[in-house]
Amino acid sequence: MENQTQSPQEQKPKKKRKWLWIIGGIIVFIVIIAIAGGGEKKETTPTTEKTPTVYSVNQEVPSGDVIWKVISVKDRGNKLLAKDSQYSVIAKDKISSGRFIEIKLVVENRGKDLASITTPKLLDDKGREFTDISFQVMEWIPENMGFYMLENLNPNLPKELIAFYEVPTDATGLQLKVGVWKPQLINLGL
Question: What one-character-per-residue DSSP string does 20-82 give?
Answer without folding.
Answer: HHHHHHHHHHHHHHHHHHHT------TTTSPPPPEEETTS-EEETTEEEEEEEEEEEEEEE-G
